[in-house]
Design a protein that fits this description.
Layout (H helix, E strand, L loop, with lengths): L1 E6 L41 H12 L17 H6 L4 H7 L22 H12 L24 E4 L11 E9 L6 E9 L6 E9 L4 H10 L5 E2 L16 E5 L6 E2 L4 E5 L4 E9 L10 E7 L4 E8 L2 H5 L11 E9 L5 H4 L11 E9 L4 E10 L3 E6 L9 E10 L3 E10 L7 E2 L2 E2 L17 E8 L1
Parallel strand pairs: 1-13, 9-12
Antiparallel strand pairs: 2-11, 3-6, 3-10, 4-8, 4-9, 4-11, 5-7, 5-10, 12-21, 13-18, 14-17, 14-21, 15-16, 15-18, 19-20
Helix pairs in contact: 1-4, 3-4
InterPro entries: Cu2_ascorb_mOase-like_C (IPR014784), Cu2_ascorb_mOase_N_sf (IPR036939), Cu2_monoox_C (IPR024548), DBH-like (IPR000945), PHM/PNGase_F_dom_sf (IPR008977)
Pfam family, one: Cu2_monoox_C
Protein name: Copper type II ascorbate-dependent monooxygenase, C-terminal domain
Length: 457
């Protein structure tokens, strides 16, 4: 395994219920076998949809697997679930559904979608029994629906846009910030207009003093928006202190910030929406939408802090992933407490102050296989570990117990890739050949990026 480090100062057997010796459940006295799904009279099925399975599906699956939602089929009713029951075991056994990438050995997070062993075995046993329906009178109480997020700002890209640069195009669109007083972003949702081509979305808050410089970039590009590889200005303006408002990646879901926190936005700001398009022939135009909830005040001002090795980004220490190699690992650690004034320019935190990590996320591309964020040095704490990376299921994970970071602690990121022939993407129906890969903005390049949501103590 190649390892490169850097330092930067910046179930169970099925139980036949009520078996009679010499007979098996689901078999009548004449020896004819009934379908398990009709076993609602006489011998009851050991596990049924209404009594046992529906509650699991409602809690862990129906949020995506319901009519009109993003999953390819519904599990919202008995008819829906029984129709696809035979397809469920493969995903359940592999642990890929429901999708919950974090390793529970690292930590616990809010809104956990994962199945425990008992629930997984219950579903497997139900399928093995033939997906019995049971008695609707056994239905569990209706699940309590989460309170819907209420947004007070609704922004949309100014016009539909079809990317023309292949294979990847980064294009930014400027949207006016409508609030006339200082406010704080406490929730953000991104709805991609054309999911087939949207690789990721990042919303930045351009401060008022830089607004004209960004408008000039927009005016200079004849197409809607302007090209912006690398950041909201495409490297044409010093944007190192432009705060993130939020982001969307495949698998991401709308959500609110940790309670009592929010990201500050000044009146007169602009929202720069960076769209990373992975261009496909024949794809339709995109007009993505961003919804934002604001508050007039919060208990603690927050920032989203991107974290990586700048030497990888700049190329002075290449993040090389050689063609044909598996198990390529790069890692990086740094004490970031001395750079807090860059993140909190209004003086909220000074160099060397402790700060609190409330949520963590990782970002790699398609050759990634594993990634982790942790604290080392003064303490040894796992923040996020994704042992089986899946580009299509990324997200930000809110810690059930926020972690305080003190001077001397180092934030550490580690990523692993597989660049062998079997792990290459398919483009236009053709699997690509391995090539040397470095840090880059394109889908065919790679990244090792951590994002942590932080506040003061």
């Amino acid at each position: 395994m190649q390892r490169i480090s850097a330092i930067f100062p910046l179930g169970l057997l099925l139980v036949a219920c009520g078996d009679v010796p010499g007979e098996s459940a689901g078999t009548d006295a004449g020896g004819d076998t009934d379908t398990a799904s009709s076993s609602t009279a006489g011998e009851a099925a050991a596990i049924t949809y209404w009594r046992d399975v529906k509650a699991i599906l409602d809690a862990k699956c129906v949020g995506c697997h319901s009519p009109g939602n993003l999953a390819p089929f519904s599990l919202a009713s008995y008819a829906d679930a029984s129709a696809v029951a035979s397809a469920l075991p493969a995903s359940l056994m592999a642990g890929t559904m429901p999708p919950w990438p974090p390793d529970p050995a690292c930590g616990t997070y809010l809104h956990d979608r994962s199945l425990d062993d008992d629930a997984r075995q219950m579903l497997l046993d139900w399928v093995e029994l033939g997906a019995p329906e049971g008695d609707p009178a056994d239905a569990p109480p209706a699940p309590q629906a989460p309170e819907p997020l209420e947004f007070d700002i609704d922004l949309e890209l100014p016009e539909p846009y079809t990317p023309t640069i292949a294979p990847d195009e980064y294009r930014c669109f400027l949207l006016p910030w409508p609030e006339e007083e200082e406010s704080f972003v406490t929730a953000l949702s991104v709805t991609p207009g054309e999911r087939q081509i949207v690789h990721h979305v990042i919303a930045f808050a351009i401060p008022p003093e830089q607004a004209e410089a960004y408008r000039a970039l927009d005016d200079a590009d004849p197409d809607p928006g302007y090209l912006c590889y690398g950041g909201p200005s495409g490297g044409k303006i010093n944007d190192g202190r432009v705060p993130w408002l939020g982001a969307w990646v495949p698998g991401g879901a709308p959500g609110d910030m940790p309670e009592g926190t929010g990201i500050k936005v000044q009146p007169g700001s602009l929202v720069a929406v960076q769209m990373h398009y992975h261009t496909y022939p024949g794809a339709g135009p995109d007009q993505s939408r961003i919804q934002i909830r604001t508050a007039a005040s919060v208990d603690r001002v927050a920032v989203m802090m991107p974290f990586t090795n700048p030497a990888w980004v700049q190329g002075s220490e290449p993040m090389l992933i050689p063609a044909g190699e598996a198990g390529v690992v790069h890692s990086f650690a740094a004490d970031v407490s001395n750079y807090l004034p860059l993140l909190f320019p209004d003086g909220g935190l000074q160099a060397g102050d402790p700060f609190v990590v409330h949520a963590a996320a990782l970002h790699m591309h398609t050759r990634g296989v594993r990634g982790s964020l942790s604290l080392t040095g003064g303490q040894s704490t796992c923040l996020l570990d994704i042992p089986r990376w899946d580009f299509n299921w990324q997200g930000s994970y809110q810690l059930t117990a926020p972690v305080t970071v003190r001077p001397g602690d180092q934030l550490r990121i580690e990523c692993e890739w597989d660049n062998t022939a079997d792990n290459q993407p398919v483009e236009n129906g053709v699997q690509q050949q391995p090539k040397d890969i470095l840090w880059g903005e394109g889908t065919g390049d790679e990244m090792c990026l951590g994002i942590v949501y932080v506040t003061g103590t």
